[in-house]
UniProtKB/TrEMBL annotation, chains A, B:
It comes from the Bacteria. The keyword Mitochondrion does not apply. Keywords: Metal-binding, Zinc. CDD domains: nucleoside_deaminase (cd01285). Residues 1-116 form the CMP/dCMP-type deaminase domain. InterPro entries: APOBEC/CMP_deaminase_Zn-bd, CMP_dCMP_dom, Cytidine_deaminase-like. PANTHER family: CYTOSINE DEAMINASE (PTHR11079:SF190), CYTOSINE DEAMINASE FAMILY MEMBER (PTHR11079). This is Nucleoside deaminase.
């Protein structure tokens, strides 16, 4: 498997072990991970730290030129908020673990010129399927849906 | 002036006094402020805590039904990331202080059924004009533009 998607899955598994929502992400620049993170809704009571946002936050303040050379890896298709963050920072490429359990704003990303590759990794699908089955209320909360 | 926009401007001024980017926001539910915040890029080294995001974060974990009855006040037109957060949580109404110094994704919000009112408050315009003039580099960083 792609080593960066492996790192994103590691993050998702970290989240799961913490009792959190198992979605992970890494931000890659020049073939190096510069930010990594996972969903922190449960752990920090955060409504903004989805996996992708946590990875961006952990990378710290980067020049605009750096974001424009980055690839963002995420285990799950990005929701509207994370999509917006990708567009704000003009990240040109997003690698998605899977979009079977949730399909985010991939169309908007592509429309704005972002390259989006979906790997459909069974490990990512299994993580989300198990989580959603065990904790449907938490999952609905995370994507703004009424439980 | 609208008392909730006044509260958002108070937040923007708090940010300015802290040496930060002067954009503030409040989240209002049933005519009560349930979250308030301001841009924390400088103060926390945060790349995700724009004013609107900080207000959402300060409101904590709310049920989906609450967000859908909220009004979000922000001193400045919402960038793509904050627009995405508004869409994720299906906040139906956004009151914008001004969109002269920066125009965000108001069209996308309206297209998705969000009511967007722009007040063009001179106090909001003045805050941003002074800040952008004094710190163009920080401002460009905040909106992902190359300095």
């Amino acid at each position: 498997m792609d080593k960066f998607m492996e790192a994103a899955i590691e993050e998702a598994n970290k989240g799961l072990k913490e009792g959190g929502i198992p979605i992970g992400s890494v931000l890659v620049h020049n073939n190096q991970i510069i930010g990594r993170g996972h969903n922190k809704r449960i752990q920090k009571g955060s409504v903004v730290l989805h996996g992708e946002m946590d990875a961006l936050e952990s990378a710290g303040r980067q020049p605009a030129t750096v974001y424009r050379e980055c690839v963002l890896y995420t285990t799950l298709s990005p929701c509207p908020m994370c999509t917006g963050a990708i567009l704000l920072y003009q990240i040109p490429k997003v690698i998605v673990g899977e979009n079977i359990t949730f399909k985010g704003q991939e169309d908007l990303l592509r429309e704005k010129g972002v390259e989006v590759d979906v790997l459909q990794e069974s490990e990512c699908v299994d993580l989300m399927k198990s989580f959603i089955k065990a904790s449907p209320g938490l999952w609905n909360e995370d994507i703004g849906e009424i439980d």
